[in-house]
Amino acid sequence: MKTFSLTRKYLTLALLLMTSISIYSKSRLTMSHDVLLDKIKGGWAGQTIGCAYGGPTEFCYRGITIPDDVEIKYPEHHIQFFYDKFPGLFDDVYMDLTFVKVYTEEGLDASAESMAKAFAYAPYPLWHANQQARYNIMQGLMPPESGHWKNNPHADCIDYQIESDFAGLMSPGMPNVASKISDMVGHLMNYGDGWYGGVYVGAMYSLAFVEDNIQTIVEQALKAIPQKSKFHQCIADVIRWYKEDPTDWKRTWTLYNEKYSEDFGCPELILAPGNIDATMNSAYILIGLLFGDGDFGKTMEISTRCGQDSDCNPASAAGILATMIGYSNIPEQWMPNLREVEDRDFAYTTMSLNNVYQQCFDLALKNIKKNGGKVSDKEVCIKVQKPKAVRLEQGFVGMTPKLLAEGIEGLGNPESERNVIDFEGIGITIYGNIDCPDKTYEAQLEVTIDGKKDRIMTLCSDFNKRTADCLYWNYDLKDGKHRIEFRLLNPRKDVNIKAYRIIRYEKNK
Question: Max alpha carbon distance in the chain (Å)?
Fold first, then answer.
């Protein structure tokens, strides 16, 4: 009986492998317009459902899983509630819509400058790498420098990962085309592992059009990431741990967190319980996809219960899975809430889901034709691509963060006694913000290091123009002792520049 069971097991695995190979090895794949549109709609719908599903727990569970006895609810009118009360939850989607709009208006050869200006001057709120990139662009620093880790302390954060869906959805079966889009758009706000998160998610979406096996999708998409990168190592570990025990997602979660939980870049979350690094949150997407067994609800629940950015991760996982199965195959229990909002514009935009379904479909047709495929009245023939690795780039290499000081108020104020700080290391970053009732006020904070003026930081009290809660950073110091001094050039009595934490970086021994 044991011999028979093993034989049957290996025959089953062989048949699954043969199925995956037969699908993946096709150099060309024909599908109807209806199927293509259904998959594109599935991607956008899944992303929106997943975002709302995980919304109530976003960053409520940092470094722990959401306990099994905590119910994750999806009540009637759930998506509509967030549309009405907390529209900023859908930054996952409205950032995508910005880039789709630019491609729709300017064509597939739209420039990075157009993309940069479109999101930098949009009215919606942003955070982390997106907001720092917006600040950089408004200050005249354009892409790719706006996303480079030396200009953007949040470069490894999740930002492009959560808004890369469009790159894959407009590049069906063409992961290298998706990577090319990600090269341009992703470097507006990210670099290194932060960029790789978007490249990987975009590749998974792209492959979801031509594959019907989640494990094949996640493994093939990883070929788009350089093997020497930290990101590749993290994802490869998750896949390996899943194969060792595909029944216990918490085991994989635990192994991942024991090995990779430290954040090195984000000024807010360095040496803190939370983690918004793209590597960790990509791992949580992957845990949901692999352990979800192709079940839509289970996939979202596991990605959500992993914690941290628990709206963005189920959004990506649900979007990828729904692209594979198609809009028409999303279980009905999830659809009434979605249908309520499909004709409603997302906040800060003039685009609804029904708009983007069609616009993304039109862009996909153009991309298929441009990249060696064929488009007829009723069908498309896609020239399917095998993923190729993008270039290797890594930020924050050889650096270890250490807490230097915290809780400093009135930074730069002439009357403050905390305007001179001595430290030792190769870099420094200051997490904080500016408080002023006049939202037109822009502080000019002069920063001097070792007696030489380094720069003048423009600190805007307007939320949409602010730095991303980082008052100053410098990663180019020689290893040794340093003195940093602050002077506010345009002081006011109603201004308070607050440094919540100052982090110094040591050189790895």
Answer: 84
Q: Is the dihedral of CA 196, 200, 201, 203 positive or negative?
A: positive
Query: Whose CA is closest to 158, among 57, 257, 265, 234?
Result: 265
CA Rg, the chain, in Å? 23
Q: Which whole number is the average pLDDT over 90-110?
A: 96
Alpha-helix runs per DSSP H in 292-352: 296-305, 312-325, 335-339
Q: Name all domains of the chain by residue range, CATH numbers in brackets.
A: 23-383 (1.10.4080.10), 399-507 (2.60.120.230)
Which whole-number Å values give the CA distances from 329 to 78, 291, 325, 376, in the listed order?
A: 20, 19, 6, 25
Q: Which two tokens stand for residue 154?
A: 């949040």
Rounded Cα distance between 378 and 169, Å, is: 19
CA–CA separation, 289 and 284 (whole Å): 9
Looking up tokens 């153009």 gives 366
Q: Vertex 470, ends 465 and 471: CA angle to 5°?
A: 90
Contact criterion met (CB below 8 Å) for 173 and 204: no
d(CA 296, CA 137): 39
Q: For 243, phi and psi rounded to 5 degrees?
A: -65, -35
Structure tokens at 233: 């190592």
81-90 pLDDT per residue, tens: 999 999 999 9
CA distance 200 to 28: 22
Tell me the C-alpha distance between 113 and 229, whole Å. Answer: 28
Our separate counts of H helices and E strands in the chain read 18, 11
Question: Cis link prior to 144 (omega < 30° from 0)?
Answer: yes
Kindly give, in sequence order, each residue whose CB lies less than 8 Å from that of residue 230, ignoring residues fewer than 6 positions away.
Answer: 193, 279, 394
**Which 3-state string (H, E, C) describes 19-88?**
HHHHHHCCCEEEEEHHHHHHHHHHHHHHHHHHHHHHHHHCCCCCCCCCCCCCCCCCCCCHHHHHHHHCHH
User: What one-character-per-residue DSSP string does 377-398 give?
Assistant: SSEEEEE-----------SSTT
Q: What is the pTM of this model?
A: 0.94
Sole residue written with tokens 């616009």: 359
Measured distance CA(338)–CA(340) in Å, rounded: 5
Structure tokens at 205: 């979406």
Q: Express each pLDDT in 137-163 by its tens digit.
A: 999 999 999 999 999 999 999 999 999
